[in-house]
Amino acid sequence: MKTEKAAAVFLGVSLFAASSGLTNAYLTEHPKAIVNLISSGSVDVELTEPAWQPENALGLVPGSVVPKNPTATNTGKSDAWIFLRVSVPVKCISVVNPQTHRKEPPADIGIFSFLAAEGWERITAERTADSINFIYGYREIVKPGEKTAPLFESVTLVNYLEGELTASDILQIPVEAVAVQDHVCEPGAALTEIYEVYLAEESGSI
Q1: Position 96 pLDDT exceeds 90
Q2: How far is CA 153 from CA 54, 105, 116, 146, 166, in A?
Q3: Does residue 165 surpass a pLDDT of 80?
Q4: Other C-beta atoms lying within 10 Å of the C-beta of residue 147
Q5: Contact, 180 vs 40, CB < 8 A?
Q6: What is the C-alpha to C-alpha distance for residues 4 and 178, in angstroms, rounded to an integer?
Q7: Nearest to residue 151, comparing CAs of 200, 63, 95, 84?
Q8: Average pLDDT over residues 93-121
Q9: What is the largest CA-CA distance in the chain?
Q10: HSE (CB half, 13 Å, CA atoms) of 68?
Q11: In angstroms, rounded to a whole number, what is the distance separating the alpha carbons of residues 182 and 68?
Q12: What is the 3-state secondary structure (H, E, C) of 101-154?
């Protein structure tokens, strides 16, 4: 039997404001929220970002890098596979080409980017109307009391053209952690297979 609990935390809200002819971005912490999907008490997960410092997220400009390191801890009683789901907001804006330094035509762009750590494997990347939703699985079983390596160490604000983002743009990077009991699949099963079992149970098809 598979059991899991999901923890959702908004990594931040990015507020953009114009000042002295420049567009300054402000990344602020959002109150954490825990969402239970299914839990029998044997599998539990906690999501934290130890590197987050609000003072590092003031007055951001295009291309700014902000330390943020979502890390999942197995707080249950069973060994578990852990998956993180990250949603990056998308907007139709113009950016500056890093090679030519010229303006690019308006296009749907992910407002933030990140570099996933080696210990994580990307399962899917699905596009919706206003976001790109990434699923990453941790390559090692996480024992009770242990934690994953951070999925990433920072997020980078896209090199957008001045004025393309304004004070009315409120952007969030929601992250959700899912823990799945280690014995839901045969030993050696791929992370994609384990996550598919989770989705099937979540939807009630098994």
Answers
A1: no
A2: 15, 30, 8, 19, 26
A3: no
A4: 18
A5: no
A6: 6
A7: 84
A8: 90
A9: 60
A10: 28
A11: 28
A12: CCECCCEEEECEECCCCCCEEEEEEEECCCEEEEEEEECCCECCCCECCCCCCE
User: Shortest CA distance to 139 belongs to which of 116, 119, 115, 117?
Assistant: 119
- Interval 58-86: pLDDT, tens: 667 788 888 889 999 999 888 889 999 99
Would you say 86 and 173 are in contact if contact means Cβ atoms under 8 Å apart? yes
**In this structure, what token pair is assigned to residue 111?**
């407002």
Query: Among the residues of the chain, which ranges form H helices?
Result: 191-203
The pLDDT value recorded for residue 82 is 92
Which amino acid is located at 88 in the chain?
V
pLDDT of amino acid 168: 61
